[in-house]
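Let's sit down with a protein and look at its sequence and fold side by side. We need material for that, and I hope you will provide a protein of your own picking. Once you have written the record down, we can walk along the chain together.

***
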Amino acid sequence: MGAGPVGGTLGCRLAAAGVSVAVIDHAALPPMENPAFDGRAYAIAAGARALLDDAGLWDVLDVPPNPIRDIRVTDGRVGRPPSRLHVHFDHREAADDPQPFGWMVEARSLRKALNARFPVQPGLHVFAPAKATVERSAEGAVVRLDNGTQIACRLVVGAEGRNSPLRVQAGIPVTRIPYHQSGIVCAIAHELPHNDLALEHFLPAGPFAALPMGPSADAEPGGSPNVSAIVWTEKTKDVPAIMALDNARFTRELGRRLGRHWGAIRAVGRRWSYPLSAMIVHRYIDTRLALAGDAAHGVHPIAGQGLNLGFRDAIELADLVIEDFKAGADVGSPELLARYQRVRRGDNLLMFGMTDQLDRLFSTDRRLVRAVRDLGIGAVDRLGPVKRVFMRRAMGLPGMG
């Protein structure tokens, strides 16, 4: 249930392994024949790329993904140079076999890839738009669509987002944390190349990130050779005024936070804003039901891990289902669901707690706190093993390798 990035990719991955899958969404698939550049992009961690490969999506992305090879973390205030104490993460230090931390993938490109894959993948059946009612029991599940179609299945996956109807139907409790912050998402074209460097600049209102995208043919007339995605956190009360600025003043405010790293900048594409909050479910499973992606968790974007946690849900669930499917076992059994919950709950809780504490530590302008965290940033930069743990976690790779 849900044809977005997590649900759609999981459906393609399972079908590619021979599992018969139905993907159902209440909304029509967005038409993507001639999508305009809109500034939205996903940071796909190294550990999640294999899922897109196995799902048959990576090679059909029509806008080439851009690697993230370095990450620079700084602390500061708006309009002032960042602290001299910083952390620089180099992908060559993260693993014996160096690979990028991840790739920036345009949102429209992934959507086009899903739309292209759905009709040609054997064993995959897509119903969108469709209204569905779901009945689950120990023996199996039945999904009834408003067009009269009836689907009998062994497992239902709720991947319909934070307001998951299946989660509500199952009575699964949720813990939410409001941050009173909103994220502003857009893109910039800039004078100097980014050299595959991502910037994370901590400011009193929240983190400001610039993430390296590939050259764009249509971000602005004539194309843009140097483009970065912006994820900008502000106090929610201040966001409407920022969103209402004309392009020149909006670009000026961007520049006050970004600094002169990449020379002259221009805001390109559309602007988006959304409130920030964290959410974690008390359990991931119910009879014949597994939750994945935003239906199961939501974290602060301070570490750029929200979608990647959903992809890691999909990787684990796909591995378990495919293993039992090939063995002729029940792919919706209580044992399989318990294994899924055991693996994913710990990982997601860790990221939930880490991102929450990072935001509380860095989204303040108290002098003593600023001094302590700057010293901490400088210390991490000098401690190779600690940096390696951080890097492998960001890449979605296990432990120390």
Summary: The first strand starts at residue 21 and ends at 24. The CA atoms of residues 83 and 371 lie 10 Å apart. DSSP finds ten helices and 19 strands in the chain. Residues 334-362 form the longest helix (29 residues).
